[in-house]
Specification:
By secondary structure, the chain is α/β, with parallel strands linked by helices. The protein is 24% helix and 30% strand. The chain is built from seven helices and 17 strands. A hairpin with a 2-residue loop joins strand 16 and strand 17. It is globular, with a radius of gyration of 22 Å.
């Protein structure tokens, strides 16, 4: 009997490629499009594209309504984190709670053996260690392991990532050969629930309306007025509206004084951080210091670091070289070669 796999289909190239590859590999494939945003139209462009792709492949297509859970677990948390002075990463939360949480639970209830997505990463089982592993995608420019570090052993054991061993151009070419309509669809760039990237407007709509306060330098000298702490993030230079005689950047936020601290670029660099909400993948637990490479932003290159376990479940990460703009709320992800060791939330 064929193994059943439910493929999360967004209407884009990557998920369509995943569905086609699984079909070619002999799986019983069903396409699933998640309805996530409260004001999402009944038949928007993404859903229409997913339906067209499923029809072209001759596979069933279903819609899974997760709007309430998405609002609670992703959108509300995003707003709450900004209100608390941090800069969250909603894609990490969505992957953990929605795509590989709620969708996986539902798919298994429906009789599926696996779920699949179009993420550029790879999954394999390590018999020696007895654990499922998450590895980088072959297309390093598209590698998405940074956003997947929260996946559990249970989730990885039911996950297929068919496009992880090829590059984006090859996936497009495969769809072109089959005449799949979405083969030339452009990649999406923005956070899905903030089209245009206007974070401030979104936060205002969610009730996050911080009070204006002072921009100060590192000595506490007032440089100007800010519009509310939620409007800024660590490392930001543009849009500050401050004349300080030299370029200044957001260094940190002082919630106790409602102040945003500004300073020179060199003051943004630091050697270490502490992370909470740690999830380990390649190892069950961390009992001693471990040499890894780590990155604190998806777009940043990795650097060598030492990982130290703390008694409260958090970890301390000490880099070999100073890192720029380490930002509370963002993810730090640890690697051993191509294998994801795990990661956590910078605190």
């Amino acid at each position: 009997m064929k193994k059943r796999v439910f493929v999360g289909m967004s209407g884009g190239v990557d998920s369509a490629g995943a569905a086609l590859l699984l079909q070619q590999a002999g799986y019983d494939v069903t396409g699933v499009t998640m309805c996530l945003q409260p004001d999402q139209p009944a038949e928007g462009d993404d859903l229409r594209s997913a339906r067209e792709t499923a029809a072209a492949l001759g596979i069933p297509h279903r819609v899974l309504d997760l709007r309430q859970r998405f609002a609670r677990e992703v959108m509300d948390r995003f707003a709450a984190e900004y209100a608390a002075g941090r800069t969250p990463n909603p894609c990490v939360d969505c992957n953990r709670e929605i795509k590989f949480g709620a969708m996986l639970d539902w798919a298994l209830e429906q009789g599926a053996d696996y779920i699949a997505t179009g993420h550029y990463a790879q999954v394999r089982f390590d018999p020696a260690g007895g654990r499922w592993q998450l590895l980088r995608g072959q297309d390093r420019a598209k590698d998405q392991t940074y956003f997947l570090y929260q996946l559990t052993q249970r989730q990885l054991s039911h996950l297929l990532l068919p496009v992880g061993d090829r590059d984006k151009a090859a996936v497009r070419a495969l769809l072109e050969q089959r005449g799949i309509p979405c083969a030339h669809r452009p990649d999406s760039q923005d956070i899905c629930f903030i089209p245009g990237g206007d974070y401030t407007a979104f936060l205002r709509c969610r009730g996050v309306t911080g009070a204006p306060g002072d921009f100060v330098d590192q000595t506490g000298r007032v440089l100007g007025r800010h519009k509310g702490q939620e409007c800024y993030t660590i490392g930001q230079r543009k849009g500050l509206g401050v004349s300080a005689g030299a370029p200044v950047y957001v260094l940190r936020k002082d919630l106790s004084r409602n102040a945003v601290v500004l300073g020179p670029n060199e003051a943004l660099f630091s050697m270490e951080l502490t992370a909470e909400r740690v999830n380990l993948i390649s190892v069950e637990r961390l009992t001693e210091a471990m040499a890894v490479t780590a990155r604190t932003r998806h777009s940043q290159r990795e650097d060598a670091a030492m990982l130290y376990p703390l008694t409260d479940g958090r970890v301390r990460v000490v880099f070999d070289r100073p890192q720029r703009a380490i930002t509370p709320g963002q993810a730090v992800v640890f690697y051993d070669g191509d294998t994801v060791v795990g990661g956590g939330t910078i605190c």
